[in-house]
Each structure stands twice: as C-alpha cells, then as structure tokens.
Amino acid sequence: MGQPFTHSFLFIWVILPALIFLARIVDVSLQTIRIVSIARGIRWLAPLVGFFEVLIWLLAIGQIMKTVSHPVAYIAYAAGFATGTAIGQILEQRLTLGMVIVRIITPNDGPELCQRLHDLGFGFTAIPGRGAAGPVETIFTVVRRQHLQHVLAEVRATLPDAFYSVEEVTSARETVYPVGAKRDPFRLFRLFSKSK
C-alpha cells in the first residue's frame, strides 16, 4: 500500500498550508469584527462572532496544528494572520453598524447647516462658543454610522472650511434619525457596497 494521503507531498505542501492560511484569515477577521462590535456597543454581535471565532479555532486550526510538523505550515499560519489583519481593517471601515457623534465647529453659516440637517431629518444641537479667532458655533449630531458619509457630505458642501470630528458612540438614550429611515436587517452583509 502507498503512503496515506495526509503524508503525501500535495497535502503537506499545498492543502494543509492552504487550510491553515484560510482558517487564520477567517479567524482574525472575525476577531476584528468582535472587537469593533464591543467598542461600538453592539452587544448582540460580539458574542455571536466570538462563538464562530472560537469554533473555527478549535475545529480547524486547533486540529490542524496538532499534526503540523512541516515549516511551510508555520509560514502559512503567519501569512494568514497578516492577511486576516489586513482584511479585518477593511471590514472595520466597511462595517456600518453602531452610532457616531459628529462635532462641527464653524465661525459662520452655522444656521444654514442646521437647516440642512433639519430638512434631512437629522437631529442636532447647536451651541454658541468662542474660539481663538473669535465667536464660533458648535453643532453636534448623533447619527447611525451608515448615514455618516451623507452627513459629512452635507457639512463639506455647506461649510467647506468648517472643522469637524467624528467619534464612536457606545450608547445613546434617544437619537433622531432621518425621517422614514428604516433599519436594514441585511446591512451587515452589505459591507462592500459603495458609499454614496
């Protein structure tokens, strides 16, 4: 009888490293999503992703690593980790879950932006203040992450010279979203849709 398939050249040099590489990509990508969901206060997603993350580790990587005796497997493991980290960063940017607070500071034309936000159905709070160069107005709005690019586009169009910052919001008691905007139950699966 010939040698077992698991000891063949094809398995050791191609199949096993490919399995390790792919499993590590999925594992690290899920880890990134879990960490992001914790940071954004999405309590239901973190445990769900964590379950599959550990399951992949135990069933795939854990079992494969028990039989690893070839250096190419270690290279595949490290390459999978690096690739999974890069993919995780892309997923983090595309993941439109959670809420953010946008702070806009402008020395003038604040009412115009407030009117635009109002017309679009976004809630806001405007506070007069004083900056280094004189009077300013600070406008705060809490929006779902999926609406962030729309709000920033309005800011840039209305107040091209305004300073703005965006921060994560882990929780909020009440927020005002665009009138008629509905939750998209499949938005988690639309990670690679183009932003408008």
Number of strands: 4
Going across the biggest sheet, name each strand in turn.
2-3-1-4
Question: Averaged pLDDT, please?
Answer: 80
Helix content: 40-55%
Rg, alpha carbons: 24 Å
* Helix and strand run: HHHEHEEHE
Summing up helix and strand content along with how strands pair, one would put the structural category as alpha+beta
Query: Runs with pLDDT <50, length 5+?
Result: 185-196
- Oligomer state equals single chain
Number of domains: 2
Note the gap between the termini. Answer: 62 Å
Shape: elongated
Largest sheet, strands/sense/barrel: 4 strands, antiparallel
Range of strand content: 15-25%
TL;DR?
By secondary structure, this protein is of the alpha+beta class. It has helices spanning 9-39, 45-66, 71-94, 110-120, 148-158, and strands at 99-106, 125-131, 134-144, 163-169. It has a four-stranded antiparallel beta sheet with strand order 2-3-1-4, covered by helices on one side.
Written account of the structure:
The protein is elongated and about 80 Å long. The chain has 2 domains: 5-94; 99-178, 2-Layer Sandwich (Alpha-Beta Plaits), CATH 3.30.70. The protein has 196 residues and is of the alpha+beta class. The longest helix is centred in the N-terminal third of the chain and has 31 residues, at 9-39. The protein has 5 helices and 4 strands. It has helices at residues 9-39, 45-66, 71-94, 110-120, 148-158, and strands at 99-106, 125-131, 134-144, 163-169. Strands 2-3-1-4 form a 4-stranded antiparallel β-sheet, with helices on one face. The model is unreliable at 185-196 (pLDDT under 50). A hairpin with a 2-residue loop joins strand 2 (125-131) and strand 3 (134-144).
